[in-house]
């Protein structure tokens, strides 16, 4: 079963002049009891950060935080001692675990566009940790699902997280198709960055979502050159 959510149904927040954010799930001042999470995917924020601005230091705990930089770059600093720059095409994962704090700033003279995803971890009380990898997903392999971050150790050369989930990216040319095999005990989440795709016959355009349950196969065809994220998730809390 596929639940379609249009771009217009996202919650838009602009808490500061330098930040424009679209919340796909309940977050900050946006609360919808029926839109708290999808499996262990608790937060998906589509953020645009103005030049020379950003998020001052703030705390996190008991969450797997994944940041995907789409355009621009972000400077990260945390209480674990990490001072890094994450550029377009790179993936960052922080295990907040028992607690950490970090800051994120766009020090460039052009806007920053990123997705930030939070996953409920499969295990609590973990020591905070950090990983970053240049996968080049924004301009990399075409017409296939490229794994970016996963908790499933059968996948190699990806960022690891403490969640029984996998985040994929696809750059799909017009007329091309991808088939993703799944199981009825899994969930599939799709969010389109640009272009137009048909997901099991349902059309999705820029910033549209599909939340899928009880499927065996997800068939995706592009009717216009497209970029999108696909997340494979467990449906049962006992399997997070």
Topology:
Elements: E1 2-5, E2 11-16, E3 19-23, E4 41-49, E5 53-60, E6 64-71, E7 73-78, E8 83-87, E9 90-95, E10 100-106, E11 112-119, E12 129-134, E13 146-150, E14 159-160, E15 166-172, E16 177-181, E17 186-199, E18 202-204, E19 209-213, E20 217-234
Parallel strand pairs: 13-14
Antiparallel strand pairs: 1-19, 2-3, 3-4, 4-11, 5-10, 6-9, 6-11, 7-8, 7-10, 9-12, 13-15, 15-20, 16-20, 17-18, 17-19, 17-20
Structural category is mainly beta
- Which segments are poorly predicted (pLDDT under 50) over 5 or more consecutive residues? none
What is the strand content? over 45%
Q: What is the 3D shape?
A: globular
Percent helix: under 10%
Strand segment count: 20
Distance between the termini: 21 Å
Name the average pLDDT: 97
Compute the number of helices: 0
Helices and strands, in N-to-C order?
EEEEEEEEEEEEEEEEEEEE
Rg, alpha carbons: 17 Å
What is the makeup of the main sheet?
A: 9 strands, mixed
Note down, in words, how this protein is organized.
The chain has 240 residues and is an all-beta fold. Helices cover 0% and strands 57% of the residues. It is built from no helices and 20 strands. It has strands at residues 2-5, 11-16, 19-23, 41-49, 53-60, 64-71, 73-78, 83-87, 90-95, 100-106, 112-119, 129-134, 146-150, 159-160, 166-172, 177-181, 186-199, 202-204, 209-213, 217-234. Strands 1, 13, 14, 15, 16, 17, 18, 19 and 20 form a 9-stranded mixed β-sheet that branches. A 7-stranded antiparallel β-sheet has the order 2-3-4-11-6-9-12, with no helix packed on it. β17 and β18 (202-204) form a beta hairpin. The protein is globular, with a radius of gyration of 17 Å. The two termini are 21 Å apart.
